[in-house]
Specification:
Strand 5, helix 6 and strand 6 form a beta-alpha-beta unit. This protein has 330 residues and is α/β, with parallel strands linked by helices. It starts with 18 loop residues before the first strand and ends with a helix. The strands form two sheets. The chain has a ten-stranded mixed beta sheet. A two-stranded antiparallel ribbon has the order 7-8. The protein has one domain: TIM Barrel (Alpha-Beta Barrel). The protein binds S-adenosylmethionine. S-adenosylmethionine binds next to strand 3, strand 5 and helix 10.
């Protein structure tokens, strides 16, 4: 049986959910200003009532019936879980899963990269909002050199890697030369990401940076050229002949791409989350339906009933922020 959403609702044609993101914890070892500005949820005080490895495997198996092929493990910070290697092994053992990816702040990556590779991990996205020691510490509370060591080790292990840089404040424009130098050393793709209203009580409008500013600088001042166009993020990818890596842009605020979104999220408690901006939840572990077919139908009906396109700009303007990305899984 392989049911697609198309059979249930034409509006969902574009959302076949090939891509499942599972948050394995809502705890984190950093306190990034764009993510957790309230500085809540110290790991030691969390209930740690997180999905167990075998529950994660069962959920992934269920979603392969919807056509899920790619699974991203996220959080919170997934590498704070002592059983993360078992989780990756179990997920990569699921038939039909061809890619297991991880999103991490990279602090523990230098210890884990080798183990993660041998567990079946295929890709890592590392969050790196700044390359300046001082600014990285201001934004995250952590040490940037530790992350750079983790990136080196990940490349050494031949795991594919992308860098996520949330554009937090216009100060980032002064760092563009640092990011260009970084691409001389590392063969990676950096993706600058627009700062989204996903942090209750702490969104700072003045920190929003329109990525046109960076794109303009790269082309006009630093001689970058477009090497390709990525239709999934609706962005040009830019590079220069002397660089090993490249730069792309993710603009969920100024060029919203909800219509081509193919992601579905599961929280660390096992709740299905239809969209980063939705407060609707369906706990997959608590479903009473007996057959797989009935469970799938329930999931589809839930997604159908919650299918709306958020207007991200007006969420910012009206200050209607309800989501905490570290709880949902970014
Ligand atoms: N701890 C991991 C990390 O730092 O990558 C995984 C969780 S984090 C919530 C996942 C992603 O969300 C990161 O790439 C981070 O940059 C992004 N993110 C967090 N807050 C954001 C915000 N307000 N706007 C845009 N992206 C955000």
């Amino acid at each position: 049986m392989n049911l697609s959403f198309m059979e249930y609702d034409d509006r969902l044609i574009l959302r076949k959910f090939e891509y499942l993101r599972i948050s394995v914890t809502d705890g984190c070892n950093l306190r990034c200003l764009y993510c957790n500005p309230e500085k809540r949820e110290k790991i030691s005080s969390l209930s740690k009532n997180w999905l167990k490895p075998d529950e994660i495997k069962e959920i992934v198996k269920l979603f392969t019936k919807f056509g899920t092929k790619k699974v991203r493990i996220t959080g919170g910070e997934p590498l704070v879980r002592g059983d993360i290697v078992d989780i990756i092994k179990l997920v990569s053992s699921v038939e039909d899963v061809s890619e297991v990816a991880l999103t991490t702040n990279g602090i523990f990556l230098r210890y884990y990269a080798r183990l993660l590779k041998s567990s079946g991990l295929t890709r890592v996205n590392v969050s790196l909002p700044s390359l300046s020691d001082v600014r990285y510490r201001e934004i995250t509370g952590g040490d940037v050199e530790t992350v750079l060591d983790g990136i080196r080790e990940t490349i050494e292990q031949e795991i594919k890697i992308k860098i996520n840089t949330v554009a937090y404040g216009k100060e980032l424009l002064d760092e563009i030369p640092l990011f260009i130098d970084f691409l001389k050393e590392f063969k990676v793709q950096i993706r600058f990401i627009e700062y989204m209203p996903l942090c209750v009580g702490g969104y700072k409008r003045e920190k929003f940076l329109d990525l046109e500013n960076i794109e303009g600088l790269l082309i006009d001042k630093y001689g970058f050229r477009k090497s390709e166009y990525n239709r999934y993020i609706r962005s040009g990818i830019y590079t220069r002949d002397d660089l090993k890596g490249e730069i792309g842009f993710i603009r969920p605020v100024t060029r919203q791409f909800c219509d081509i979104c193919n992601k579905i999220r599961i929280s660390s408690k096992g709740e299905l989350i239809p969209c980063l901006f939705s407060s609707k939840r369906l706990n997959i572990l608590k479903l009473n339906e007996k057959t797989e077919e009935e469970i799938l139908r329930k999931v589809v009906l839930f997604i159908k009933s919650t299918y709306t396109k958020p207007d991200i700009k007006s969420i910012i303007e009206r200050d209607e922020i309800r989501s905490r990305i570290y709880e949902i899984g970014g």
